[in-house]
From TrEMBL:
Domain Plexin cytoplasmic RasGAP: 1-70
Protein name stated in the entry: Plexin cytoplasmic RasGAP domain-containing protein
Domain of life: Eukaryota
Taxonomic placement: Eukaryota, Metazoa, Chordata, Craniata, Vertebrata
Pfam family, one: Plexin_cytopl
SUPFAM superfamilies membership: GTPase activation domain, GAP
InterPro entries in the cross-refs: Plexin (IPR031148), Plexin_cytoplasmic_RasGAP_dom (IPR013548), Rho_GTPase_activation_prot (IPR008936)
Signal peptide coordinates: none
Length: 70
């Protein structure tokens, strides 16, 4: 439940704040939300050359973030 709440707030800040979200901001927030979801996941993610770039961007930091979550 907290993961669903925080991911929704991260991806849709206009629900909480009176702001306009353009497409660039939306793409950046989607990367942050995906990193947050991967950090809170208990399963291991196998990344390869065909993996999406948003997952590859923070792939080396995910183990560190997972230890913080634990």
């Amino acid at each position: 439940l907290p993961l669903r709440f925080w991911v929704n707030v991260i991806k849709n800040p206009q629900f909480v704040f009176d702001i306009h979200k353009n497409s660039i901001t939306d793409a950046c927030l989607s990367v942050v939300a995906q990193t947050f979801m991967d950090s809170c996941s208990t399963s291991e993610h196998r990344l390869g050359k065909d993996s999406p770039s948003n997952k590859l961007l923070y792939a080396k930091d995910i183990p560190n973030y997972k230890s913080w979550v634990e």
